[in-house]
Amino acid sequence: MNIYKLFLFSVNISLIFCSELIQECEILKNYTNFDDIQCCKLSYVKCDESEGHIVSINLRNYIKIEIRNKFSLESFLNQFPSLEKLDISGNELTGNLIIPNNTTLVELKL
Question: Signal sequence span per UniProt (predicted)?
């Protein structure tokens, strides 16, 4: 019976992490033309599945054209609390690129 409880516990933990990743993948879809719900399998996204978060995104030339003029780096980073690496080069972004103080970002390519 204890093995069964342990199995159920591990399944619940996996579902929690999976749902967090899916939420971040849904957010990412708003910025790109890719509709894959399993964004962690994409070459331009790296996830820490044990923590349930996206940790690296390469959006070089991938940000939707209609988003580029109103892109807010601060808002973007606040939606990805564990993001460490971000490449947004080649998107011809305009405006203020404010980096919030509470970010985990260690590498940014503009």
Answer: 1-18
The torsion angles phi and psi of 42, rounded to 5 degrees, stand at -80, 150
Which stretches of the chain are assigned E, i.e. beta strand? 45-48, 53-58, 85-87, 107-109
Query: Which range marks the domain in which residue 84 is found?
Result: 2-109
CA 67 vs CA 1, 50, 70, 73, 75: distances in Å? 53, 31, 6, 12, 13
State the Cα–Cα distance between residues 39 and 99, nearest whole angstrom. Answer: 24
- Distance, first Cα to last Cα, the chain: 54
